[in-house]
Amino acid sequence: MVDIDKWIQQNKEANFCQFQSGIIKTSYHMDGIRVGKLRKLAKLIDDNYFCSESYEKLLLSGFVIAYRKDDFDKKTDDIYRYLLCCDDWSLVDSFCSSFSKKNNKNIESFLQKISFDDHSYVIRFVLVMYLRMFLDDNHIDFIIDYCLKLKRKEHEIIMAIGWLLQCASID
């Protein structure tokens, strides 16, 4: 079993932490651990790990959820719990990029279920997941309609809509 606190102490980088704090505006304590290292660790620890004591521990929790071999439907409660802890775009976007595009059965219905949630980072998750997994001819009209129906003014949502629509215009 990996001692997470000890691992964090051994892998933190002060210079990277300083860089991160310039672009990530989270309320969580940051240690400056690179995402790639957290992804590797997530594959080695218990599938039930969840901790929101720091930025890295929360992000690690997200990776553990995404990498779990369960059917997507069995992860939805944990996904939602994770999203409610998120307070920065990076926690959401890194989480979204951890889901396999091959294993997206049932993701779409979950996204529709939470698509008008009160929490802005839940909405960002929906938008980024649409961008990553469903930006194709079969979904484009639905996605554009969804973006038009969102009446949210939070920066993280507006930026995700802009990113999604920019990518849609290229494809």
Show the helix and strand layout:
Blueprint: H1 4-11, H2 14-23, H3 35-42, H4 55-67, H5 76-85, H6 89-96, H7 107-114, H8 120-133, H9 140-149, H10 155-170
Helix percentage range: 55-70%
Order of helices and strands: HHHHHHHHHH
Our estimate of the beta-strand percent is under 5%
Overall morphology: globular
Integer average pLDDT: 94
Poorly predicted ranges:
none
Query: How many helix segments?
Result: 10
Quaternary state of the chains: single chain
| Total E-strand runs | 0
General description of the model:
The protein starts with a helix and ends with a helix. Helix content is 61%, strand content 0%. The longest helix is centred in the last third of the chain and has 16 residues, at 155-170. It contains ten helices and no strands. It has helices spanning 4-11, 14-23, 35-42, 55-67, 76-85, 89-96, 107-114, 120-133, 140-149, 155-170. The chain is globular. By secondary structure, the chain is mainly alpha-helical.
